[in-house]
Write a structure and sequence with these properties.
Layout (H helix, E strand, L loop, with lengths): L21 H4 L5 H13 L7 H7 L7 E10 L10 E10 L2 E10 L8 H4 L5 H14 L11 H17 L3 E8 L7 H9 L10 E3 L7 E8 L2
Parallel strand pairs: 3-4, 4-6
Antiparallel strand pairs: 1-2, 2-3, 5-6
């Protein structure tokens, strides 16, 4: 069930309690720590967004402004099981447009398991969930086994929350804090499923006629 009541933060430390394993992930070298610092800093700016996130969004949207952001936001999918976390989900305004922004943070740690690894302990619930994600994102007939599962659920979360909030656009954004661009090849492989050539610091529109327009992006953090 999607939560409907959220508590404002007083600073980055408030993000720690939402992590699945706070003792492990609340460290300088992990993306969870970097995201909390950077998004709290960005919230103090005129746009409410970190400069690198604002710059990527501004490639397609005029003067994006953060309305609100939710750390570790859960979006349930069919198939049962725990709803997966999004590192950050945000609602952004650009003029009269609303943008559902789902964010995957990335430092030097790898993205989570591939779809093939995720399916290795197959269950009816997983099969139903994967069929739903494939249909939602229009990925029928694509080889998903080498693709990181995180990209599927994060992108689907952006689309579903756009539908729930009446937003016309959905963005799946990797917010990277890796000097080596760790994980970029995985992101590029996901973008190729939609016929897109991924680039660092770029927002790419996915072609389609769906009511919600989908975009993929990669922002380089400080």
């Amino acid at each position: 069930m999607t939560k409907r009541i959220f508590i404002p933060t007083d600073g980055p430390e408030d993000w720690k309690r939402f992590l699945a394993d706070p003792d492990r992930h609340w460290k300088h070298e992990f993306s969870a720590f970097a995201l909390a610092q950077r998004w709290e800093q960005g919230a103090e700016s005129d746009t409410g967004l970190a400069p690198e996130v604002s710059a990527v969004l501004a490639q397609r949207f005029e003067t994006p402004v953060l309305l609100f952001a939710v750390p570790e936001h859960r979006v349930p999918f069919p198939g049962g099981g725990a709803a997966p976390h999004n590192d950050v989900w945000a609602l952004v305004r650009s003029g009269r447009d609303l943008i559902s922004l789902a964010v995957e943070g990335k430092a030097e740690e790898a993205f989570d398991v591939t779809v093939g690894e995720w399916q290795s302990h197959e269950s009816h619930g997983k099969a139903a969930r994967l069929d739903y994600l494939v249909g939602l994102l229009g990925l029928e007939g694509k080889d998903l086994h080498p693709i990181r599962y995180q990209f599927l659920h994060c992108t689907a979360s952006a689309v579903l929350e756009a539908e729930r909030c009446g937003a016309g656009h959905a963005v799946m954004l990797v917010h990277s804090f890796s000097r080596k661009h760790t994980g970029f090849e995985d992101y590029a492989a996901f973008a190729q499923l939609f016929g897109l050539e991924a680039k660092v610091g770029t927002l790419l529109p996915v072609k389609g006629e769906a009511p919600v327009r989908l975009h993929l992006g990669w922002a380089d953090g400080s």
